[in-house]
Design goal:
- The complex is a heterodimer of chains A (256) and B (292).
- By secondary structure, chain A is α/β, with parallel strands linked by helices.
- Chain A contains 10 helices and 10 strands.
- In chain A, strands 6-7-8-3-9-10 form a 6-stranded mixed beta sheet, with helices on both faces. In chain A, strands 2-1-4-5 form a 4-stranded antiparallel beta sheet, with helices on one face.
- In chain A, strand 1 and strand 2 form a beta hairpin.
- In chain A, 44% of the residues are buried.
- By secondary structure, chain B is mainly α.
- Chain B is built from 12 helices and 2 strands; from the N terminus they run H-H-H-H-E-H-H-H-H-E-H-H-H-H.
- Classes of the chains: A alpha/beta (256), B mainly alpha (292).
- At the A-B interface, helix 2, helix 3, helix 4 and helix 5 of A face helix 5, helix 6 and helix 7 of B.
- The complex binds adenosine-5'-diphosphate and magnesium ion.
């Protein structure tokens, strides 16, 4: 479904991502792990068009997307969450999701201003979609709370809900469990599986919680200093000496 | 204070309000700052006056054409600067506003810096009121549509807006266009109210005044813009009697609001019928509680 071919990204002299090849299969949950600064978020930024690749190709459903603008890529069915949550902070939970539903309506500016034609009917549908999504994601109770007033875990969940409003075919999650306790992480793990089954979307996830990654991913890519170290199913990745070293290396640094 | 005087203040407020409403869409709802809106007013003013005087068009079509021309010109500025990162847009509007004024200063056809007298007086309280009511209704409808929500998303978090498929550039352009149309119509009304146009009426002071009103009323609130305009247009006029202290008092009032309510008068909220009824109910309930 998504294919990275020889993808490279440099910032001035710094090579953040170097010749990475990877395939995300349809309906799979794939993982992307690696120490801090390895280039994981940069890969998500390249896929979503926020950064332009320095070299290589990104192919989605057979179409090269590396030169498209972010909103076009979203329009093709790829959306994401951010490592440092980016909600519409001052808006309510409801408005965050409602805003993201915009693609499910087609009324034009004239119809908005004059409340004519498709406006009423489509707007009613958008509002229904929003209610449904809040219900599924367990956010109905928080409907009128502003996004920034929510506890951290719920903000993450709202960001996922907002992404789902776009009806993505490929959902990229950047460290969705960051800052969650083990209990919340477990809940999130189940939620991600449920989302895959219910919304029939493919999921690509960056995560540091190994339990979560190993628990739900079918295929994992390990990144270190911008390069792909290895790729494979969880059992294989877990046993790989290079991976252990990369992570131990970081652990040792942290300990120092 | 006689009715004639109050009427004058109301008309002035109404003219200002039209420009403030437009700027409110751009700054309050889309998060873009402009320091050249007086330039859009000037374009609307001179175009509308030309339409009426030289082509003999009636008031409303003249104002609309003024607004439209102003909107079209805003699209050129937007096209050049709105997809650049940073504050290019803001700087460009500043330059634009000053450039328009300087150009008009030197166009003798419109009277140059001396001004253009003899514009027919066609603005009264009624047509100002009607134009503003229509302006407000259009804005409310726009804000409560997917287009308006997309603009708010641009203001709140542009990157996230893009990743949920919002064409942020397009929505900034729409917002700018509508905003400039409103400013142009407001400018047109200036000419037909005072009977006289002069480039220095549309200086950067005017642009800044409009931005102050939007922020004072509260970013992202239409009712805030209305209240802010009424207060900040009426206040200097009422204070005119104390000419010397006028600007001091005006400044003090603005500073007082910004310190006591940094989010502006309305703080992004709206005065709605529903909210008003809810407020009454709370009053009633607390009243009963006090009795019981
Ligand atoms: N916009 C940018 N400009 C310059 N350097 C960047 C930029 N974005 C990321 N980098 C650098 O690229 C490297 C990889 O960053 P990132 O992808 O965020 O790592 P990860 O998500 O794996 O922790 C880091 O060294 C970071 O400093
Ligand atoms: Mg990261």
């Amino acid at each position: 479904m998504l294919e990275l071919k020889n993808v490279t990204k440099t910032f001035g002299g710094l090579t953040a991502v170097e010749k990475v090849d990877f395939i995300v299969r349809k309906d799979s949950i794939s993982g992307l792990i690696g120490p801090n600064g390895a280039g994981k978020t940069t890969i998500f930024n390249l896929i979503t068009g926020i950064y332009k690749v320095t070299g290589g190709e990104i192919i989605f459903k057979g179409i090269p997307i590396q030169n498209l603008e972010p909103h076009r890529i979203a329009g093709m069915g790829i959306t994401r969450t951010f490592q440092n949550i980016r909600l519409f902070k001052k808006l309510s939970v409801y408005d965050n999701i409602l805003t993201a539903c915009h693609r499910n309506a087609g009324y034009n500016l004239m119809e908005s201003v004059l409340r004519l034609g498709r406006y009423k009917k489509e707007e009613r549908n958008l509002r229904q979609d929003t209610e449904d999504l809040m219900e599924i994601m367990g956010l109905s109770k928080w409907r009128d709370h502003t996004a920034h007033s929510l506890p951290y875990g719920l903000q993450r969940r709202l960001e996922i809900a907002r992404a789902l409003a776009v009806k993505p075919e490929l959902l990229l999650l950047d460290e969705p469990a960051a800052g969650m306790n083990p209990d919340e992480t477990l809940q999130l793990m189940n939620l991600i599986r449920e989302i895959r089954d219910r919304f029939k979307c493919t999921i690509f996830i960056i995560e540091h919680h190994m339990d979560l990654v190993m628990g739900i991913c079918e295929n994992i890519m390990v990144l270190n200093f911008g390069r792909k170290l290895i790729e494979g199913p969880p059992e294989m990745v877990q046993r790989d000496p290079q991976v252990i070293e990369a992570y131990l290396g970081e652990g040792a640094k942290l300990g120092a | 204070m006689d009715w004639f005087y109050i009427k004058g203040i109301l008309i002035l407020s109404g003219i200002n309000l039209m420009a403030v409403l437009g700027l409110s869409l751009l700054t309050g709802f889309t998060g873009l700052f402009s320091f050249g809106h007086a330039g859009f007013m000037a374009i609307g003013a001179y175009t509308a006056a030309t339409m009426g005087i030289k082509l003999g068009l009636p008031l409303i079509p003249s104002l609309l054409i003024g607004g439209l021309i102003s909107g079209v010109i805003s699209l050129f500025i937007g096209k050049l600067t709105l997809n650049l990162k940073g504050d290019y847009f803001c700087i460009a509007t500043l330059g634009f506003g000053e450039a328009i004024r300087l150009i008009l200063d030197n166009v003798q056809y419109f009277g140059g810096a001396r001004g253009w007298p003899g514009i027919p007086l066609k603005i009264d309280l009624w047509n100002v009121a009607i134009i503003n009511v229509v302006g407000i209704l259009i804005l409310i409808n726009l804000i409560n549509s997917r287009h308006g929500r997309n603009m708010i998303a641009v203001r709140e978090e542009e990157l996230a807006a893009k990743t949920i498929g919002i064409d942020t550039f397009k929505h900034k352009m729409i917002s700018l266009f509508i905003s400039a149309v409103y400013a142009g119509i407001a400018g047109g009304m200036v000419g037909y109210y005072t009977g006289f146009l002069q480039p220095k009426m549309f200086s950067m002071n005017k642009s800044t005044e409009l931005t102050i009103i939007v922020i004072f009323g509260g970013i992202g609130s239409i009712s805030g813009s209305v209240l802010g305009t009424l207060l900040l247009t009426a206040l200097p006029e009422i204070l005119r009697a104390f000419a010397l202290w006028r600007l001091v008092a005006y400044g003090a009032a603005v500073i007082f609001i910004m310190i006591s309510r940094p989010e502006g008068l309305m703080g992004g909220k709206e005065i709605t019928l529903k909210g008003f009824i809810r407020l009454l109910n709370i009053r009633k309930r607390s009243g009963k509680a006090a009795e019981g």
